[in-house]
Amino acid sequence: MRSLFVYTLFACFPFIIVSYQTSAEDGCIVKEFEEVDSVINNCKDIILDSLSIPGGKKLILNLNEGTTLTFRGNTSFNFYEWTGPLITISGNNIKVIGEKDSVIDGRGPLWWDGQGTWGSQKPKLFKIQVTNAILDGINIKDCPSLCTIVNGENLVIRNWIIDNLEGDEGVAPENNFAHNTDGINLGKSYPNENVTIENCVIYNQDDCIAIARGKNVTVRNLFCHGSHGLTISGDNAVIDDVLFENSIITMAENGIHVKTHVLNGDGLVKNVVYRNITILDAKHYGISVEQNYLNLPAGQPQDGPPSNNIPIYNLSMHDIYGNVLSGGIPVFILCADEGCFDWKWENVNILGDSQNNNCTGYVPEEYEC
């Protein structure tokens, strides 16, 4: 099945994942976990070569300004029941790259229990807080829980592969599938200004991309499979000037998902554009906009009343095409009174064979629900 997805990806996208070969002085090549701190403190051209990280230990990479850090070979983590993260990266004016054939293996099957964060403790994989940075060519496999949480300014993430396909229901052993494995999540604890995420391939079991806070964010040329879609996650923060474009979403619960959290305080979502997005075989919704979101265990319905604590202004959709599976709803909108304003949707056509669109509280301009 994966070969079909890869064929679809490269048939439709005019980009090729770039690979790197790098070199560094022998003293700046790390082959043992115990060497990390010394090399990080004393080198600016660093290679992490096939590290095995002890269970319960964190790979802390507080990089000096101007550093280039390369992952080489297989970086892996031993089992320990905790919340992580397994890797933290911080620094200014840095570059982090994945060398050809390198992989960061979270060894997720050791933790997966089908319950995600509602089950046993599972570590997040990556936590990144950087400024003026490029993260290029990173290859991640089998995140135990959330794959990447990012806080950054003037940041480019490009040419990543996140492969959690082994955690899909029907692929993983019964009751040992992955859940809550967000691909790349722009967290709410930092402004996240001037961020670009591009040319990435993500197989996972939660939001492909989730933005909880950000200004001037561009997400483009993505292929997402099995996720909860391209997501705006309105919280007690401001999300402003976000563009999602030129991407394909396959076999997701939602293709496009805009949600606002009803219990987390006041916030604002404005000036968000989705453009040229293809949604194939969405399971529940092609497009879902809901102002009644609660973080609930898998399978529990979002059926509470909507709230306008986080209003949504200027939500634009242009050239959105695709389909939902039988029983899925092509377009679902649930807005609170005085919660949604000035949306414009053009050329939005999601097909479904058994359910009609469902718009409550608001209908976008130039769109027939």
Automatic annotation (TrEMBL):
Recorded GO CC terms: extracellular region
Q: Which residues form the signal peptide?
A: 1-24
Q: SMART domains from the xrefs?
A: PbH1 (SM00710)
Q: Keywords of this protein's UniProt record, alphabetized?
A: Cell wall biogenesis/degradation, Disulfide bond, Glycosidase, Hydrolase, Repeat, Signal
Could you tell me what reaction this enzyme catalyses? (1,4-alpha-D-galacturonosyl)n+m + H2O = (1,4-alpha-D-galacturonosyl)n + (1,4-alpha-D-galacturonosyl)m
Q: What class of enzyme is it?
A: hydrolase
Family matches, as Pfam families: Glyco_hydro_28
Q: Does the keyword NAD apply?
A: no
Check the record and name the InterPro entries matching this protein.
Glyco_hydro_28 (IPR000743), Glycosyl_hydrlase_28 (IPR050434), PbH1 (IPR006626), Pectin_lyas_fold (IPR012334), Pectin_lyase_fold/virulence (IPR011050)
Q: Which GO terms describe its molecular function?
A: polygalacturonase activity
Biological process (GO) annotations held by this record are: cell wall organization; pectin catabolic process
EC number of this enzyme: 3.2.1.15
Source domain of life: Eukaryota
Stated family: Belongs to the glycosyl hydrolase 28 family.
Protein's name according to its UniProt entry = endo-polygalacturonase
Q: Which organism is it from?
A: Dendroctonus ponderosae
